[in-house]
Design goal:
Layout lengths: L1 H52 L10 H15 L5 H4 L9 H18 L10 H29 L3 E6 L2 H13 L5 E8 L16 E4 L3 H7 L4 E4 L6 H13 L3 E4 L11 E6 L2 E6 L6 H36 L5 E7 L5 E7 L35 H9 L6 H6 L4 E3 L6 H4 L15 E3 L1 H5 L6 H13 L3 H17 L4
Helix pairs in contact: 1-5, 1-7, 2-4, 4-5, 9-10
Length: 485
């Protein structure tokens, strides 16, 4: 018997060693991909700045990048700019732009400081400014391409969820939907209480055992990451799980308690060995809201000018292919519970709303509060094209100019949907509803109503102009790929 156990233990050790090597190899490839991206981005930005756009007069710059680049790469390594990707589930270059800006500013400072070592002593402030702009664009672009390449060619990461019930199911559903995270859920483990299994059958997750089987499961299933969600086990057992996972060389991601109440605006603090999460207060200075409004006016004006020809053509197409008005006006609930008429190009037959009760059984949105049908029989042939291309939403730019909507904001709900939003969720109406928002970027119709409301609340609670810019940038590929239609 003992010989069999020893053999089994040796087999698990071999499996664990192979898994660890695969994980380390993948992480090393990610690090070197980012380092290579920085080298290329720096080189291109340097050549564009000091050889093409703003060349140094009467000086050779051949030695300057050779002196600055190694120092810059070492500084980036110290600041963990190459190591964070290994620990993250979602690796986003757009989220990293502030860090890239700081890194490029450091490179610009190094050029100033180290220029005399390369016999270059006339670097002007204007040249450094050009370098910073070029550096952010080039390094950001090369890092984006590096991450896309590693996502394509590296094996997907195998993850085990420690936990069960609603949160386990929610985490699994999001990771299954967000394929860009590169995560495959192998199953879940929890305490002995089998009654807390995942709830939604559309996300099948196999129970692989109990907490006592964690080491065996990690080895046999090739687990590279353990995701600790809400679990029925005691706090002491949960701490043991984290310690054991780290000892096995497995990455650990933890879903924090009260995750519904905060998003990314968290500062990590340490007090005598205790880790604390600091939540920033909700602050919306009038100056920042004025900038948001200015961005709306400029964006909507430019957008209407650019799409005016397309709007005219589509309006004619709507009119001549089906009877009824060109524009469809629908009552929505705006900021501060104020009602307004939202404009869209009509994509359904005239009087479509009266047909809704007879089609209620076809509603595909979980919960039944939102009403969406993938192949809605009320949609006209032209309307189908407009919906797939999102051209039907162009008239909402008029709502933006009128101040009833914003380019980015919480989803504008019809009154019956708004009546289902209760309690603290109603804080989502503290900002003007938007043409796009987190619900548009993260799944549109595939997101349940309750989750959409929570996303809107977090957007409002953590609003910033940079967040709006990121959502606008992320909306474009969603529309182009026609996701969530």
């Amino acid at each position: 018997m003992s010989g069999g156990n020893g053999s089994r233990g040796g087999e698990l050790t071999l499996l664990g060693g192979e898994r660890a090597r695969v994980t380390e190899r993948g992480d090393a490839i990610r690090r070197w991909a980012l380092i290579s991206a920085d080298v290329i981005g720096f080189a291109v930005a340097f050549l564009l700045t000091f050889e093409v756009v703003a060349p140094l007069s009467g000086a050779t710059t051949s030695m300057l990048p050779l002196i600055v680049l190694p120092v810059w790469l070492i500084a980036n390594k110290i600041l963990r700019h190459y190591d964070r990707d290994a620990n993250l589930l979602r690796r986003s270059t757009l989220d990293e732009v502030p860090h890239i800006l700081q890194s490029v500013l450091a490179a610009a400072a190094l050029i100033f400081i180290l220029a005399p070592l390369a016999s270059v002593d006339d670097v002007a402030q204007a040249q450094v400014a050009v370098f910073v702009l070029a550096g952010v664009l080039m390094v950001g672009s090369t890092r984006f391409l590096a991450r896309a390449a590693t996502r394509r060619y590296l094996a997907r990461e195998r993850a085990l969820i420690v936990g069960s019930g609603y949160v386990c199911d929610l985490v699994a559903e999001k990771l299954v939907r967000q394929r860009r995270c590169g995560i495959d859920i192998v199953g879940f483990v929890d305490a002995d209480d089998d009654s807390r299994a995942p709830l939604h059958p559309r996300v099948p997750i196999e129970r692989l055992g109990h907490l006592g089987d964690l080491e065996r499961i990690c080895f046999t299933e090739g687990v590279e990451r353990v995701i600790v969600a809400f679990t029925a086990s005691s706090d002491g057992s949960l701490v043991d799980v984290v310690r054991q996972s780290r000892r096995l060389g497995v990455k650990v991601s933890i879903v924090p308690r009260l995750f519904e109440a905060f998003g990314t605006s968290v500062d990590v603090d340490h007090v005598e060995g205790i880790t604390m999460l600091g939540l920033r207060p909700v602050l919306r200075p009038k100056s920042m809201l004025a900038l948001k409004r200015a961005m709306d006016v400029v964006g909507a004006t430019v957008g209407l000018i650019l799409v005016a020809p397309a709007l005219l053509v589509t309006a004619i197409a709507v009119k001549v292919t089906s009877p009824g008005p060109v524009f469809y006006r629908q009552e929505r609930i705006g900021r501060g519970n104020r009602r307004f008429s939202m404009y869209k190009l009509r994509t359904m037959v005239d009087g479509a709303h009266a047909l809704r009760p007879s089609l209620a059984h076809l509603n595909e949105v979980p919960g039944g509060t939102l009403f969406k049908i993938a192949d809605d029989p009320r949609v006209t042939p032209v309307g189908s094209i407009l919906r797939r291309s999102s051209l039907d939403e162009i008239p909402q730019l008029l709502n933006v100019l009128r101040g009833e909507m914003s380019l980015v904001g919480p989803r504008p709900l019809v009154p019956e949907e708004d009546n289902a939003v209760l309690g603290w969720h109603r804080a989502r109406l503290d900002l003007t509803p938007g043409l796009t928002g987190p619900w548009q970027v993260l799944g549109r119709n595939s997101i349940p109503f309750e989750e959409m409301v929570r996303l809107d609340y977090l957007y409002v609670a953590e609003w910033s102009l940079w967040q709006d810019v990121k959502l606008l940038v992320r909306t474009l590929p969603v529309v182009v790929r026609r996701e969530g239609q």
